[in-house]
Specification:
Structural class: mainly alpha
CATH architecture: Orthogonal Bundle
Order of helices and strands: HHHHHEEHH
Mean pLDDT: 93
Largest sheet: 2 strands, antiparallel
Number of strands: 2
CATH class: Mainly Alpha
Distance between the termini: 29 Å
Oligomer: single chain
Strand content: 5-15%
Length: 144
């Protein structure tokens, strides 16, 4: 982990990357410390994209910033863990769709609660208002 003094010399891109990496590690550890089911950050990313939806696998591969091969591997892993199910698409023999199982939804909801706890810990350190400002800034259209 990078020290606070080293953070002072980073540009915006590297600061975002360092903080993202840190909170993802903490979030992943929080889940894995309390669950028998190991779920990687990439698997969470895919689960977040399909939560409460039934997208086609090709839709997921087009809209997730992971290689097509890796996505297929992660979906297979999620299926083997019982977190997603893959179904045929009606009127299309080639296409498959994916959705969370009841277990997958349960895990997703528990993980959302863990992330909310982490956000609260951050707010305790930097202030609730600062967290809201940061979230608002990140939600803006940066037109880039």
């Amino acid at each position: 982990m990078i020290s606070n003094s080293e953070l002072q010399n980073l540009d915006l891109i590297d600061l975002l990357s360092e903080r993202h990496s840190l909170v993802r590690k903490i979030s992943e550890k929080a889940w894995n410390d309390q669950s028998e089911i190991y779920i990687s950050n990439s698997e969470w990313y895919i689960m977040a994209r399909i939560y409460k939806k039934q997208p086609s696998i090709s839709h997921v591969t087009k809209n997730v910033e992971i290689s097509r091969q890796a996505i297929h591997k992660f979906i297979k892993n999620l299926s083997e863990k019982g977190l997603v199910e893959i179904k045929n698409v009606e009127n299309n023999k080639k296409e498959k769709c994916i959705q969370l199982t009841d277990l997958g939804e349960e895990c997703y909801i528990k993980n959302e609660a863990l992330k909310a706890q982490l956000e609260n810990r951050i707010a305790e350190k930097i202030g609730t208002e600062q967290v809201q400002i940061l979230k608002d800034l990140l939600k803006l259209d940066w037109k880039i």
